[in-house]
Amino acid sequence: MRERLEQLKAEALEELHSVADAKQLDELRVKYQGKKGKLTEILRGMGGLSAEERPVIGQLANEVRDAIDAAVSAHSERFEREETERRLASETIDVTLPGRKLPRGAAHPLNRIIEEIEQIFIGMGYQISEGPEVETDYHNFEALNLPKDHPARDMQDSFYITEDLLMRTHTSPVQVRTMQKMDGEVPVKIICPGKVYRRDDDDATHSFQFHQIEGLVIGKNIRMSDLKGTLLRLMQELFGSDTQIRMRPSFFPFTEPSAEVDVSYRKKGAENTGWLEVLGCGMVHPRVLEMSGYDPEQYSGFAFGMGAERLAMLKYGIDDIRHFYNNDERFLNQFARQ
Q1: Is 316 helix (H, G, I), strand (E, B) or coil?
Q2: Which intervals hold domain Aminoacyl-transfer RNA synthetases class-II family profile (predicted)?
């Protein structure tokens, strides 16, 4: 058995010299040291050795195994080193080559107008609040003074998921959730930007999905004049210091009194200034305050809501709301940062 082990060692080391790659090396390792390899086959015959021969042959077998292991490891390291050198040579980067000019991205016009409005209100001490787009009927309607049989629900043709769940039709539920979270504490001073959904036909001025930015202020002695001053500041920041607004009486179930707000604007090439409706607003209805934990005898508040698309169309001179969603690069490139 001694001679067979010595012969096996010499044979394995000799065969290693002809190995050309890692795959052949692994095959050779299995051939000699695998479960069915030649070394294992010889060692199975140790049961027939005498007690004196077993330790001697065992030690020799370990020496043969260690010698083959060392040779295999050396060849493996060489192959890895050669592969690394080959990859480095093939993947060399010529740092003297001129760089490729990459196109610069830009914020989408809707994101730009929303971020601009957020910064204006943050400057006035407001906080940004968000809420789920899938809402309960209670938060979307009932807590806003719109019970299940209220005719004003027809003004917002809704996407219902179940009898009690729907895609929110405005971001007003965020106001409700904020008031409930505050649990009667003041002041509340938030804006709620986000996507809303209504069953509507897509055309130049309508979409089934659009962005709304609503605001809510609650405290002591909050007046309609505070609301008007806030909205005037917003419009002048957006459209220029000479911009004016006017408020016309309107109706919303969750505010009383309520108003529509028009902003002064001048079409390109026109001599006279016109008016364009941009948002709805009003003083928070006492019933809405009461349902959300506020005593209407002590506290008052105002709320407003505007469409980001409408303001962006006015600010950037866009005549079709569908441009915002068609991903036409010719349109979007006009808003690329210089």
Answers
A1: helix
A2: 111-314
pLDDT in tens, 16-68: 777 888 888 777 777 777 777 776 666 666 666 666 676 766 677 677 777 77
Q: Let me know: does 15 contact 28? Beta carbons within 8 Å.
A: yes
Encoding tokens for residue 87? Answer: 């990859």
256 annotated to bind ligand: yes
pTM as predicted: 0.69
Instruction: Give the dihedral sign, CA 230/233/237/239.
Output: positive
Is residue 282 within 8 A of residue 303, CB to CB? The reply is: yes
Of 3.30.930.10, 3.30.230.10, 3.40.50.150, 3.40.50.12780, which CATH number belongs to 109-335?
3.30.930.10
241, exposed or middle or buried, with CB in 10 Å at 0-12, 13-18, 19+?
exposed
215 touches 263 (CB < 8 A): no
Q: Where in the chain are the domains? A: 2-90, 109-335
